[in-house]
């Protein structure tokens, strides 16, 4: 019979401290998820952790890499109180990463959450103003008719948290999008025999930058060279892939 083990994760940024506790039962079952937030030793939040996206007993801490923690105290925007960010993982081979933000509204902490699906978000300072945002990737590209998770490219997504809501602000950061596009193009050059998923991510980035003409011309050239191929049996190739991809990009708000 599996034995439950207590887990504790803590984060501190003056004057706020967050303590996340849970019971872990192998394999990958959890219970008694609980979060406590204090300021100057005064308890301002003390309650079980609940999520519409992350269900017990599978819901547990999301911790990527050695020494990583699932709870952080961050300054996500103006205000006297620091925000608390809690990362949760739903278990499974590819899914899913959920971030909860606990924000002080002047009277108490209010929880908001976002399901980033297959790709965990990193809180980073980006752009000229060093805005603090959540940097992730678009999981819609992970499973398509022309790629599977292992061969897919996923264009960058940048999310802002403000006034209790997450909003997609990727278009506001063209330098980051351009850098992502360049990285996917370099990867495609190494996968000319099976790179449909990768060039799809490049095309999405370039469409966000307003380069739809470049995307159309480049895809046409790659089709003539025989490079638009996939390892998925029956996947569209060449011109058929271009048509499929353009519909996909329009559906997901990339292409005009």
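^ structure tokens above, recovered residues below v
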């Amino acid at each position: 019979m599996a034995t439950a083990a207590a887990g504790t994760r803590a984060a501190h940024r003056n004057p706020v401290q967050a303590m996340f506790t849970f019971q872990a039962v192998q394999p990958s079952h959890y219970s008694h998820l609980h979060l406590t937030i204090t300021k100057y030793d005064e308890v301002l939040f003390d309650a079980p952790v609940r999520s519409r996206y992350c269900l017990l007993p599978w819901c547990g801490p999301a911790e990527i890499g050695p020494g990583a923690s699932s709870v952080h105290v961050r300054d996500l925007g103006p205000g006297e109180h620091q925000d608390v960010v809690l990362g949760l993982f739903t278990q499974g081979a590819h899914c899913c990463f959920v971030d909860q933000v606990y924000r002080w509204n002047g009277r108490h902490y209010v929880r908001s959450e976002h399901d980033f699906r297959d790709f965990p978000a990193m809180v980073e300072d980006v752009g000229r103003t060093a805005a603090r945002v959540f940097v992730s990737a678009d999981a819609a590209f992970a499973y398509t008719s022309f790629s599977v998770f292992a061969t897919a490219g996923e264009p960058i997504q940048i999310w802002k948290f403000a006034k209790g809501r997450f909003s997609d602000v990727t278009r506001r950061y063209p330098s980051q999008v351009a850098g992502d596009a360049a990285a996917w193009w370099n990867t495609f050059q190494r996968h000319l025999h099976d790179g449909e998923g990768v060039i799809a991510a490049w095309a999405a980035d370039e469409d966000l930058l307003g380069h739809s003409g470049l995307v159309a011309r480049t895809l046409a050239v790659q089709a003539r060279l025989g490079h638009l191929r996939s390892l998925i049996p029956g996947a569209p190739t060449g011109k058929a892939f271009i048509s499929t991809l353009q519909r996909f990009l329009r559906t997901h708000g990339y292409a005009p």
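The helical segments are 174-189, 196-208, 212-224, 238-251.
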